[in-house]
Design a protein that fits this description.
Layout: E1 14-19, E2 29-34, H1 40-45, E3 51-54, E4 67-70, H2 73-82, H3 95-111, H4 118-143, H5 152-162, H6 164-168, H7 181-197, H8 203-221, H9 226-236, H10 257-262
Parallel strand pairs: 3-4
Antiparallel strand pairs: 1-2
């Protein structure tokens, strides 16, 4: 960030990204610029929210009251992938590969449940995924004593043990997700772009970027052509008195049937 009052140009700033749930009727992605990574930012943004909060295991989210935290099995799997030995002929015979296989089983089952309603999904998870999870935790206990400390494999096992509750919480509600991939996929275009532009010129510029990315990524997850949608709202919204009548915005939201027809 450049030209931010009271901060050096080399100071890191952050783009926070919030999302509706994977199975929400109206998919939303919202980017928010903040100068830091304190848990006070999501605490403020999510004030009044109660429910399940999907995220990585960053402890700052513990400041958000009234939520049940759900951690990401894709992160857990990544720990095992990083622990695969590079100099062994048969990595499939390693402890790390066994951990990956447990994760793969969960994701394989999950793919079969995507078209179910929330109650059906919860029932099927308890029937088919819970036994895999029980076997996984028993396996973790059986191997933890044979792993070298300060190794990547030790990190994978430690991550699982430290976050067991959060990794299991998605079973409580069929609307929960098994991973945080949804939001990671939405933030990827920003991450790729940042490698090119490197920084924002000012906090106002970063906030403007956040607004544009929010509009574009929300349009995309609602099946719209982002260019058509941006052209539509830039052409139509200037004449709408939504400041006095915010309900008028309903006609311009990405899931509105008419918008769906115009901006596919």
């Amino acid at each position: 960030m450049l030209r931010e009052v009271g901060r050096k140009n080399t100071t890191s700033s952050y783009m926070w990204v919030y999302s509706s749930g994977q199975y929400s009727q109206y998919p939303i992605r919202l980017f928010e610029y903040q100068p830091g990574r304190s848990g006070s930012y999501p605490q403020k943004f999510l004030k009044g929210f109660q429910g399940f909060l999907h995220s990585d295991a960053y402890s700052g989210y513990n400041k958000v009251p009234g939520v049940t935290r759900c951690f990401c099995w894709a992160h857990q799997r990544r720990y095992f992938v990083d622990a695969l030995p590079k100099d062994i002929k048969d990595p499939a015979a390693t402890i790390a590969s066994q951990g990956i296989e447990y994760c793969n089983k969960l994701f394989e089952i999950e793919r079969k449940l995507k078209d179910l309603c929330d109650e059906e999904r919860k029932t099927e998870r308890l029937k088919h995924e819970k036994p895999v999870l029980d076997a996984f935790w028993a396996w973790i206990e059986s191997v933890r004593g044979s792993i070298l400390p300060k190794s990547k494999l030790a990190d994978a096992v430690k991550y699982a043990l430290n976050h067991k509750e959060g990794l299991m919480n998605y079973l409580q509600d069929g609307n929960c997700s098994i991973s945080n991939n949804l939001i990671e996929n939405s933030i990827r275009p920003f991450t790729v772009g940042r490698r090119n532009w490197l920084f924002s010129g000012s906090p106002k510029g970063a906030t403007a970027s956040a607004v544009v990315y929010s509009i574009v990524e929300t349009a995309k997850v609602n099946g719209l052509n982002p260019y058509k949608y941006l052209k539509f709202i830039f052409s139509e919204l200037p004449g709408v008195q939504f400041g006095q009548h915010p309900e008028f915005l309903e006609d311009y939201l990405p899931w509105n049937p008419e918008v769906q027809k115009l901006c596919k």
